[in-house]
Amino acid sequence: MAVLPFRLRLRTAAISGLSPSTSVVCPSRQHRDGGSFSCRAAAAAGGPIIVSGDPPTFVSAPGRRIVAVGDLHGDLHQTRAALVMAGVLSAESDCHVWTGGQTVLVQVGDILDRGEDEIAILSLLSSLNVQAKSQGGAVFQVNGNHETMNVEGDFRYVDPGSFDECIRFLEYLEEFDGEWDDAFLNWVNVSQRWKEEYRVSPNGDWLPLNFVKKNKGFAARASLFKQGGPLACELARHPVVLNVNDWMFCHGGLLPHHVEYGIERINKEVSNWMQCSNEDSDDTNLPFMATRGYDSVVWTRLYSQDSVERTRRSWDLSSIIAEQTLKSVGAKGMVVGHTPQTRGVNWYTLFSIG
């Protein structure tokens, strides 16, 4: 996780979970549905939170403390630890209560893959958002490359335990008779019990020749994450680029040609693609600008290389591009994830402030 800072009246904390991978860059100078909403309990913070765009793109959150958390990759234990450390989650392991008051929490992508509690984390963050909004705060999620990969059907990095979670979750959904919101928000509260009750053979069910179990796991995951599937539509609620109080949040990084193309346009195209279930529609085409290529929003590592890996030339180049990008969008700074930082969160001041 990397942060590129600017003088800011708000306290801005950058915290990552299992694999620290967040970066910040700065230059010199709802209801659960998308769309606009305002949080009422906001007088002490300086006004209500105003969200524009569907999915959310621009957020005005006067006087709020902003916390960013990086790649969580299916590790619920470390997710909880990071959120407790940030002061936005109760420390009790058997409850999931928002303690952040009017704080704004932004998760910058890659909740999926590598761990076995992905849906539980998605459920947790959505539940916390409902609670936060009642107190004048908010929780936002930004889609990363692993979210787009799974909607594509690319399951290369899925942990076997997460295939199991998909099977359990589908069985659990049957109890709610189509009440998606209730079932999804409650999953984090019951997922551990379902895991303990789920029958697993002593040597594990994911042996190379266990084709029946593998097919069941792949089918369950595909039905949830395919375009138009319930979890793909849940991810479609979230942007790939988010502006909060003139701070940009994205997974890989924002570049000048992304801004020229249009941030709202990028968010809308990715959302439409995730929700689309009609194979004859143009929306089945993957939005290249956001999700494909070394310089796409979710894949670029221009800003998130570890400082020891940077040459002077690459440092100068990223500084110039960051300045151009943030100037063109009128932002104070940028927070990104995507690339592991073995020594913790990077905080770079790319330009002096006069």
Task: Describe the protein.
It is a single chain. The protein has helices spanning 76-85, 118-134, 145-152, 160-173, 180-197, 211-225, 230-235, 256-261, 263-275, 288-291, 312-329; strands at residues 2-4, 12-15, 23-25, 50-52, 58-60, 66-69, 104-107, 138-141, 241-244, 247-250, 333-336, 346-347. It is α/β, with parallel strands linked by helices and 354 residues long.
Relevant terms:
alpha/beta; Metallo-depent_PP-like; hydrolase activity; 4-stranded parallel sheet; 11 helices; Calcineurin-like phosphoesterase domain-containing protein; Calcineurin-like_PHP; 354 residues; disordered C terminus
What are the segments in which pLDDT stays under 50 over at least 5 consecutive residues? Answer: 4-20, 26-31, 33-42, 349-354
Question: How can the largest sheet be summarized?
Answer: 5 strands, mixed
Helix and strand string, N-terminal first?
Answer: EEEEEEHEHEHHHHHEEHHHHEE
**What would you report as the Rg, rounded to the nearest angstrom?**
20 Å
Helix content: 25-40%
Beta-strand portion reads 5-15%
**Which whole number gives the mean pLDDT?**
83
The strand order across the widest sheet is 4-5-9-10-11
User: Count the helices. How many?
Assistant: 11
The tally of strands reads 12
User: Which class of secondary structure composition applies to the elements?
Assistant: alpha/beta
Terminal CA distance: 26 Å
Backbone shape: globular
